[in-house]
Amino acid sequence: MNDDIELHDAWVAGITLYGGEALVALRPAYVHRNGSGWTQDIDLLIHSASVTGAAAILPIDISEGTLHVGGHVFPNLVPIASAPDVTVALDLVLTSGEAIMVRGHGLNVVVRSEAKYVEPSPSTGRG
User: Fold this and answer.
1) Domain enclosing residue 81, as ranges
2) Average pLDDT, stretch 45-65?
3) Is residue 62 in some structural domain?
4) Domain count of the chain?
């Protein structure tokens, strides 16, 4: 089973940098799961992180984004799987036009709530 966060339909509730880690709170995230769409609160915790850019008003929805994990590129998707020992780059463009870039080494994806069914959805294109 491949569960993926669709960045285009997710909301950034906050970005916190502390102790070298960046916490990107998606409230809610839109999750593709088994041919259907769900919402769920999810945190992206990026280790040894730096953050460039900031949103003037939060929460705000994401217009588009890309996640780079090691040598893999995920346009508009974040797999719900941790990658503890690889280079990570998360680039977000918000609906306000603002851009946020998070760079680091290691990613933990932390599910913070139960999933709520939204709708049937088309395949994400991941195989």
Assistant:
1) 4-120
2) 93
3) yes
4) 1
Distance, in Å, from the CA atom of 93 to the CA atom of 72, rounded to the nearest integer, reads: 20
Q: What is the pLDDT of residues 101-119, one digit of tens each?
A: 999 999 999 999 999 999 9
Please give, one letter per residue, the 3-state secondary structure of the chain.
CCCEEEHHHCEEEEEEEECCEEEEEEEEEEEEECCEEEEEEEEEEECCCEEECCCCCCCEEEEEEEEEECCEEEECEEECCCEEEEEEEEEEEECCCCEEEEEEEEEEEEECCCCEEEEECCCCCCC
Residues present in the chain in total: 127
Q: Is residue 18 part of a domain?
A: yes
Whether pLDDT at 38 is above 60:
yes
Mean pLDDT of 22-50: 96
